[in-house]
Every structure is written in structure tokens, then in C-alpha cells.
Amino acid sequence: MVNYRDGKLFQYENDFFAKPRKYDYINLFQVGELFSCHDYEVPLHEQLCSEISYIISGSGKFYVNGKEYEVNAGDLFINCFGEQHRIKASKQDNLRYFYMGFSIDSGMISEKQDLIKMFEFYSTHHDQPICHCKYDITISMMSRLINEFYNGGELSEFVIENMLKQIIIDVYRSYVNKESKIIKLPKDEASAGNVLYKVINYIDNHLYDIVKIEDIARNIGYSPTYISHLFREKTGITTQHYLITKKIEKSIELMHEGQRNITEIASLLNYETLQSFSRTFKNITGISPSEYLKRMA
């Protein structure tokens, strides 16, 4: 996607069109996130690859070969190679969306019928290119993918490859299995897997409320000791580490939104001092919050 500066609140983009990155059978051309002002427009352009877009917030219109599609928060949108495409935010809302441009190397999957079907899906124009994602974890993975490109780390290329495959497959399954039900964990209170799910779900949805592990334990009805032991046993990391990581991810999201300064973000996430938040942020990302903001600019 070309960098159109006017009207953008922020854009984080990795552009590999000059030299696409190879991840097994996936050629990656671009991955990023755009947060635009209301009424902002991405001009008409020809798709040079397949593209997945996910509307994070706001509303607007996607145009494909002259046809108009209204998009809202939670929508997935598919484009294929050769389509004429433009995007326009609504007059009332800012528009924020994730995007990923790619192609699938058909020569590498010639003996895998299921992958060939997926290749054909992403290579074909769709009259109904909008769908809702069936899997919450896919949306979380899009955010993680952006963070992985930004921060890197041990085995980063393998992590990126696996997330790319998961996103592409999950989105494909969301489109072709629209009527199927989402499988959920069994609601057996004695199930360790169910308890773990409750912990993760509570953390993900109450980042502004949680100060310590005891807050999680009190709200889901298990002891802090049991939660901590179970979480580490099943995931290999501590509950505290997961909580801290999610809070830092949320702080990065809030920085990109540009509505609050660093002190306000630290307070919102229940850090006692700005120094404590800054120290934790640097431990997770390798740079301070102020340095992160400089790199965003």
C-alpha cells in the first residue's frame, strides 16, 4: 500500500513489494495497520497480490472494480490480484484496519488438495468479499504479527511464518464455513483447560481492572496459588508475565490511538508510578515508551 500521509492518524507498515519475503508457501508483500481520520481516502489502485483486511474500529466503504461495500468494525474483507480497489473512511468515523498482502506459491502445494482449494479461493474474485472472523484468536494474532515485525526476538522468523499460515487459513475457513458453529472449550468446572481459558479470557478483557493475580483469582473463583501453578504448567510462562505482556501490548495500542499521553496510559493500566510502567515497558520491548513514540512519529 502506498504511503498517503494526509489524513492519517498513524500507519505502521512493512512493505516488501520490491522483494517479497518468503515464508514456506507464502510470499508476503506487505503487512501493517492504518488508522485514518474520517473521510480519508486511499486512492484507486490495482491489487498486486491477494489481501486480507480486518476492520478494527470505525466504518467506511471499500470499493472493488467499481462496486461499493460498506464495512464496519469486526468485518473481514478479501481482495485478489488484479482488482481495482480503493478505500474511504466514513464522514463520521475514523477508520482503523489491519491489512496483509500476500500470494500463495501454487508450485509448493501441488500435492496438497486442501491447500490448492485455499489457493484458488484467494486467487478468485468474490462478489461477497465481506465476512466475520469465526476465531477470536485470529484477531489477536493479527496484532501479535504486527508486534513481531516491530520487536522481533528469538526465532522471530518461525513465529511470523506460523502466524501468517494461521491467519490465512483461519480467514479462509471463516469464509467457506460461514454456517458452522465455533467450537468452545467444555464448561466443566473441574477441567484444567477450562480454568486456564477463564484466566486468559479474564486477563484479556479486564486489563484496566487487574492490579495483581489475586484480582483474577477472586473474580473467577480459584485460589491465586492454584491459578499460578496451573498457568505455568500448561503454558510454560507465569500468569504475571502473561498479564504484564498483555498490558504492554495494550499500552502500545493506546499510544497508536494518540488519545492519551504516557502518564495517562500508565495510570489507566494501574501502574503506581510512571517509572514503574517505563521500566516494565523497556523490559518487554527493549526500548522506553518515549523512544517508542519517537519511532512512531
From TrEMBL:
Residues 197-295 form the HTH araC/xylS-type domain. Gene3D superfamilies: Homeodomain-like (1.10.10.60), Jelly Rolls (2.60.120.10). It holds the Pfam family AraC_binding. PROSITE patterns: HTH_ARAC_FAMILY_1, HTH_ARAC_FAMILY_2. The keyword DNA-binding applies. InterPro entries: AraC-bd, Homeodomain-like_sf, HTH-like, HTH_AraC, HTH_AraC-typ_CS, RmlC-like_jellyroll. This is HTH araC/xylS-type domain-containing protein.
